[in-house]
Prior knowledge:
This protein has helices at about 40-45, 50-55, 240-250, 255-260, 270-275, and strands at about 10, 20, 60-65, 70, 75-80, 85-90, 100-105, 115-120, 130, 140-145, 150-155, 160-165, 170-175, 180-185, 190-195, 200-205, 215-220, 225-235. The chain is of the alpha+beta class. The strands form three sheets. Strands 3, 6, 8, 9, 10, 11, 12 and 17 form an eight-stranded antiparallel beta sheet that branches. A seven-stranded antiparallel beta sheet has the order 4-5-18-7-14-15-16. A three-stranded antiparallel beta sheet has the order 2-1-13, with no helix packed on it. The longest helix is centred in the C-terminal third of the chain and has 13 residues, at about 240-250.
Amino acid sequence: xxxxxxxxxxxxxxxxxxxxxxxxxxxxxxxxxxxxxxxxxxxxxxxxxxxxxxxxxxxxxxxxxxxxxxxxxxxxxxxxxxxxxxxxxxxxxxxxxxxxxxxxxxxxxxxxxxxxxxxxxxxxxxxxxxxxxxxxxxxxxxxxxxxxxxxxxxxxxxxxxxxxxxxxxxxxxxxxxxxxxxxxxxxxxxxxxxxxxxxxxxxxxxxxxxxxxxxxxxxxxxxxxxxxxxxxxxxxxxxxxxxxxxxxxxxxxxxxxxxxxxxxxxxxxxxxxxxxxxxxx
Length: 281
């Protein structure tokens, strides 16, 4: 997968300003960056699930702060009322105990405010607090990534947060774009994130054996946040046919596939359809 974390990194200067990294590393995995796990690569190469499946994995209108509502015309998006001195959360409908799952989160950088946190939580995690805080990760029932502070938190009342992405130095900040991916691997018990095709590495471990729900904590009035379930993989080994399809698609290249270059291979239609995932549509 292409992309480079360094494109979103800014250096802090003594005068309080900021400037871009002098030179971005191009291609491959730069020093200190993380290689994307093969199963995640495979999942991201698959077609996105249908809208009805996305709705089943969307925000839960019955499991939210009262200052939040799920939009009637878009069940994947919630809206937060402009309530001052309040931190508000909403959980997803589905709790996950097994499998690899990926979600696309859309959260405008202009609607994040002082405390914008995304992560996972059990049913016991609180959904509201008075004042502004990083509510996800401040207790033993939730694990969060504070997008503005570049910190990951779990039980922060008893332990300090850690820098994430972990390759950031003290004079760097990472600007998380409007869209990024949440990667929940309940077989490994990890929570990770992908930004612009770059796997940022594991943010949290220790989730195995728990049942956790995607969750967001927001403070910005009238902010709207969309979560789209992209798909999942069960923990069982993948069929040989699926692995062969992945290798062929890697060799051909996604841009060539999108341009219809599979036709140049002169393959039988059944095989070509399989390589294009038409068996899943």
